[in-house]
Design brief:
CATH topology: Purple Acid Phosphatase, chain A, domain 2
Bound molecules: fe (ii) ion
CATH class: Alpha Beta
CATH architecture: 4-Layer Sandwich
Oligomer: single chain
CATH superfamily: Metallo-dependent phosphatases
Shape: globular
Largest sheet: 8 strands, mixed
Number of strands: 14
Structural class: alpha/beta
Distance between the termini: 26 Å
Helix content: 10-25%
Number of helices: 6
Radius of gyration: 17 Å
Order of helices and strands: EHEHEHHEEHEHEEEEEEEE
Length: 273
């Protein structure tokens, strides 16, 4: 199964038409089975931005699943920050369930869990409500024989090149990693930092390894204009970052994580630059 991991589109911020069109064309040419967007789909959570973002994703022609980011809470509506149940009403009206997403492909034997990590105040660290965490633990214990992946906005793992006040991980990062390693969730797709990174965590006491795809912000200037193509083959994961360079998106790396212990660059690493 081939998925495109996108994040932090910040639709509504000044984005060059060339870049937007190039991303659309690149996604179409990559022909993923599914688009996964790990939050901050809009820049300010306005209706027009949600409409624009959804129209863009639909124009790619592949199914898509999303989770919200902190930018989906309207900056102009203080009450949405003060009362979490009011938050992201517009998000839900455009993208459906905001707290828990369960996507199962029986054809590819893949199950994807999407969680809302947005905490109303303060919004930046992010957290997972206890009930949602229990839901994830219970659901991910099932699906034997399926490849399991989690996607959410806030980082479970800190991202290289983002050491700042805003660099801290999700406040429940340890517990989420604990559940992933116990229930053989092989892949985490996260956003928020606008930096592209591909990592693998090895937890020897559980003989567990978790691959982490941390997406950039493919449309934004001054950050990593990168999204990831993720191929899932049985328990092997291949991540290929694609970066906006010279007016088009090109593959700038290829990282293969086989079921065996060692991860390595792909033997057929086809860097385009
Ligand atoms: Fe963002």
């Amino acid at each position: 199964m081939k998925v495109a991991h996108l994040s932090d589109l910040h639709m509504g911020r000044t984005i060059s038409a060339e870049k937007l069109e190039s991303l659309r064309e690149d996604l179409i040419s990559q022909a993923p089975h599914l688009l996964i967007v790990s939050g901050d789909i809009t820049d300010r959570g306005s209706t027009s931005q949600f409409r624009r973002a959804k129209a863009f994703l639909e124009s790619v022609g592949a199914p898509f699943i999303t989770v919200p980011g902190n930018r989906e809470v309207s900056f102009g509506a203080v009450w949405e920050w003060l009362f979490p149940p009011l938050s992201m009403r517009r998000y839900s009206s455009y993208f459906g369930a905001k707290d828990r997403v369960l996507f199962v492909s029986d054809e590819h034997k893949v199950v994807l869990f999407g969680l809302n990590s947005v905490h109303a105040l303060p919004s930046w660290p992010g957290s997972i409500p206890r009930a949602t965490r229990y839901w994830f633990r219970e659901k991910s214990a099932g699906f034997q024989g399926y490849f399991k992946a989690l996607f959410l906005h806030h980082p479970v793992l800190p991202v290289i090149r983002s050491s700042s006040f805003w660099a801290h991980t999700l406040s429940d990062a340890g517990e989420m990693l604990n559940i992933c390693s116990q229930n053989r969730v092989r892949l985490i797709m996260q956003g928020h930092k606008h930096r592209s990174a591909v990592m693998e965590v090895h937890i020897p006491e559980r003989n567990a390894r978790v691959v982490v795809s941390s997406c950039g912000a493919p449309l934004m200037p001054f950050w990593d204009s990168i999204y990831h193509i993720v191929e899932i083959r049985s328990q092997t994961v291949v991540v290929r970052p694609r970066e906006f360079l010279g007016g088009t998106y090109v593959q700038t790396g290829c990282y293969e994580f086989p079921d065996e212990f060692n991860s390595a660059h792909c033997s057929s690493d086809k860097q385009e630059r």
